[in-house]
Design goal:
With about 260 residues, the chain is mainly alpha-helical. The protein contains eleven helices and three strands, in the order ααααββααααααβα. It has two domains: about 50 residues, no CATH class; about 180 residues, Peptidase M41 (Methane Monooxygenase Hydroxylase, Chain G, domain 1, Up-down Bundle). A three-stranded antiparallel β-sheet has the order 2-1-3, sandwiched between helices. It starts with 12 loop residues before the first helix and ends with a helix. The relative contact order is 0.13.
Amino acid sequence: MTTTSKHIEPGTPEAAASVLKRLATRAMGLTGADIERIVRQARLKARREKRSIRYEDLEEGIRMDRPQVPYDLRWRFAIHEAGHAVVHHALRLGPIHGLNIDTPGGGGYSQLGFTASGSDTLGYREDMLAMLMAGRAAEQIVVGAISSGSGGTEDSDLARATRLALAMERSLGFGAVQPLLYREDRDPTAVLDSNPDLAARIHARLEKALGRAVEILSKNRDKLDALIKVLFDAQTLDGGAVTQLLRQGDRTAGN
């Protein structure tokens, strides 16, 4: 992302807050130790050059000289994270804090907030499932094929959605079979592999959530396409920028 030189210390509080938001979004996925090291190195560099810390000093440290993400992967990351954001906004699940497709792990990252209101209901949990499946749904709509980006790790979209659907069926009281029984499943993989009927019910919930995400994104295709383009170009967007774009789409749709 191309930036102009910005000093951290001078300027108005609003300008400083804007810069800090951009840096926080760029730093999504880093640990506290990473941030401490980056700030320390930026201070040393500024001291050597006898000047105050600049935005570029911190951004350079955050990126850690990472190579540019290939065009096709960067585009798919933008599609995937935009899908999550659009469905999250459409279902009014809570605030959006930022989107990043330039993370240390080489993938995308969505920082989303969630409201407490209604969070104990079946509808809310179904909304959550749709949001978790929305990255995959966006790839399906825009590219016409899905990648492995939804799965592969314990904190992936598919892993989180599977655990949530399993809890809905087995411990939250929303199950289709014996809903009053509470069962704690410490190893979801073993439980699902040993119970084909349960696995089929869980998969059906996920299929329903994916279909719902596809429907929501299809109805909001203009917003999805606009967010994909802006995110692809910028690589990081703070929550204010994302929300403003999506709300503009709301107003346009209302005209």
